[in-house]
Amino acid sequence: MQSWYYCDVTCDVGSTGSSAVKQVDILPVNLVPQTGSASLPCGTNTILRDHGDNGNYVEFADGYMVLEAGGTAVISIAGPYGTESCCDDIFIYDGIGTGGTVLANYFGTGTANFTGAPGQTVTVRLASDLSVVGFGFDFTVSYTGTCPSCLTPTGLTATNATADGADISWNCTTCR
After folding, report:
1. Which phi and psi angles does 66 have, rounded to 5°?
2. Chain segment 29-85, per-residue pLDDT in tens
3. How far apart are CA 87 and CA 15, in angstroms?
4. Which residues, 6 or more positions from 56, have their beta carbon under 8 angstroms from its beta carbon?
5. In this structure, what DSSP letter does residue 148 have?
């Protein structure tokens, strides 16, 4: 969502001034679940936080958020994090879920700065152990490039039709 603002100032001595109109982007907040998973569609610019939101994450957390991409969309993730440096980790994986290559691993305190490849879906995971917790993370997720549009399949065919179902096939040269 975009809003436009300007600042109008009146000083004690009677003089006034105003700023130029500035665009402000308001991003929704999405939380990585404490356990399990969730996903966001391609192009969803957002503030991504751990399940603790503005508080600390909990012990034994192990949840993840899939950030979908495709087309020429590029995902950028940046922002502060704070975890137990020995035992709690924030991982960014290639693809859907935690089975892909680890692209980034953040622990302790610092600032994440990750940029994916065009069309690359990534997964953000927080895994914590049983002792010390921290504030987690407060990442800004932004997309550049173009997400794939909804495509209409061609050459739709149905074979082996029975009372219980059928085999459906179609052509889609731009699907991934």
Report:
1. -90, 125
2. 999 999 999 999 999 999 999 999 999 999 999 999 999 999 999 999 999 999 999
3. 57
4. 133, 134, 135, 136
5. P
